[in-house]
Amino acid sequence: MRPLVGITGRRYRLGLLQGADERYGDRCLDSYMSDFATRVAEAGGLPVHLSYDTDASSVCDWLAGVVITGGQDVHPSCWGGDPGVVRDVDPRTDPMVHDLARDEYEIALVRAALDRGIPVLGVCRGLQVLNVALGGTLVAHLEPGTVSHLSAETAPTDGTADHLVTFEQGSLAAELLGPSATTNSWHHQAVDRCGAGLVVTGRTSDGVIEAVELPGAQVLGVQWHPEWMKGADPTLAWIVHAARSYLAATRHAETARSMS
């Protein structure tokens, strides 16, 4: 069985693309990092790109896995941060400013997936969305220090030696990646207080949270970008495996109900 794995993206005006026809420049397009879809497909999943218009609850009736991807900062109104950092710029004209519509959609998607027991993978911003969806808070800005979190490296890359993430023994992250792993890193915010039920399972040497999990559920958040690791990273293969298991269990339950 090839499970449907939903992948989120962002939305901006066509006019931002060099060479776009000016007659359509005010129209919007939905954009997705194709590396996610490629790796999900390679692992045996069927990637599905999710627009903001896809009702979060209804689409979870079809999905077997969800990936919340990277991107801009989560709007501070979603987690009690300082609203003064929000610029008065339309996110459709600048894909890196706060986009409340994206935040609200992804938070609803996470909650709908968790309600159904659908496996969830949060990547970079996606980890932070997962945390916020469960009531957690964020560090608004990481000052430069001994670990390079906002890397100047170009993707794909396996990161620099200082960005070593150590995982908690017995955690899902440790099961997938071993006791530690060097990863890439492009973030200036991080998890502060964990949301309800989330536990920290990975940190860098400066204490920054790099992996979180929800015990008893197929839920993992990672602060790096597995889709842009140059070497092998098992994280996206994991979400496909978890989605396949969810799909099998769901079909088994439906068969049992039909026979009762």
Structure, described:
The protein is of the alpha/beta class. It has one domain (4-259): Rossmann fold (3-Layer(aba) Sandwich). 27% of the residues lie in helices and 20% in strands. It contains 6 helices and 13 strands. The protein has helices at 34-42, 56-59, 100-116, 125-133, 172-177, 235-259; strands at 4-8, 10-13, 28-31, 46-50, 65-68, 120-123, 138-139, 164-167, 180-182, 190-191, 199-203, 209-213, 219-222. Strands 4-1-5-6-13-12-11-8-9 form a 9-stranded mixed beta sheet, with helices on both faces. α1 packs across α6 (235-259). The two termini are 24 Å apart. 43% of the residues are buried. The mean pLDDT is 97.
The count of helical stretches stands at 6
CATH class: Alpha Beta
Question: Unreliable runs, pLDDT <50, ≥5 residues?
Answer: none
Q: How many structural units, i.e. domains?
A: 1
Q: Find the CATH superfamily.
A: Class I glutamine amidotransferase (GATase) domain
Integer-rounded radius of gyration: 18 Å
SS content category? alpha/beta
Counted beta strands: 13
What is the helix fraction of residues, given as a range?
25-40%
Largest sheet: 9 strands, mixed
Outline of this structure?
The protein has 260 residues and is α/β, with parallel strands linked by helices. 27% of the residues lie in helices and 20% in strands.
Write the layout of secondary structure elements.
Elements lengths: L3 E5 L1 E4 L14 E4 L2 H9 L3 E5 L5 H4 L5 E4 L31 H17 L3 E4 L1 H9 L4 E2 L24 E4 L4 H6 L2 E3 L7 E2 L7 E5 L5 E5 L5 E4 L12 H25 L1
Parallel strand pairs: 1-4, 1-5, 5-6, 6-13
Antiparallel strand pairs: 2-3, 7-10, 8-9, 8-11, 11-12, 12-13
